[in-house]
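Notes continue from the previous slide.

Worked example: a multi-chain complex. Inputs as given:
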Amino acid sequence: MMKQPIQFLKPFYLIVVVLLVMIARGFPLWLLVPLLVLALAAPLIRELRPKTDLDERQIALSHWSSHLAFYLLIGLLLFVMLTEYVATGKNPDPQWYMLLIVPLTVKLIISLFQNYGTILAARYIAFFFAAVFILFVLLSHGFTLEALMESLPFMIILSASLLISKFPRMAGVVYLLLAVGLTLFFRGWLRLDIYTRLIMYSLIPLPLFISGVALVIYKTEEEV
Amino acid sequence: MKNKVRQYRFLKGEMTQQALADKVGVTRQTIIAIEKGAFNPSVKLALKLASVFDEQVELLFSLDEDD
């Protein structure tokens, strides 16, 4: 396959699109979204297809620059939040926390799966959630029947995580069911604004959902 | 890491960087970076380069003292 000679077009497109909307007076802000999607579509499709037309050095450079840009973005967000806090004396609105937490959670999940593999990563995620949730329930209700009832969903995920090695697909289905259940819970039962809900989705159902999908498509040693 | 890609290109009848890049499926800039020592290729790419020059990979690439 012919390799793409230049690889900086994606950030260049994006900068041009944003500048265009900034400079062109009268361009409504909502136009930025379809323009960004259009600008991102071609390079993203090219990168996501099984055989990329970037070579290994270009991929390494692209990842490195994205990595630096990511941490710069996190730094800028913290700077804006701090500046706002100093100026107004108010805790920043949930959307600022959402902008910080969602990408960091996604990065953490990807790192976890890449470093430890499907089985261990899914198990660590279950242990973490079960430990935090059970601790939370015990602190609020003590050793009561109510506490036992409330910690039931995470008892289930804890049990599923212990069976991962033998029955990865079955455990994956349990993870997925719990992820769907918790998504519905955060959507319908709790009265949360959209930004706080997105934080909750990314912190709890998302890791469970990704673990579930990874476990369902996991191939055991015999299947490889 | 040291490499002798430039010397082997010369021995192969002054093969151009672009021709070598096309043979191993990378860009010319990547060949330039490898020759300068600015980029260490993957094992796969190193093996492909060695195969183009019909040589063993350890003759093409070797470790520096500080590696």
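Summary box: Residues 94-224 of chain A form one domain. Chain A has two domains: 13-48, 94-224.
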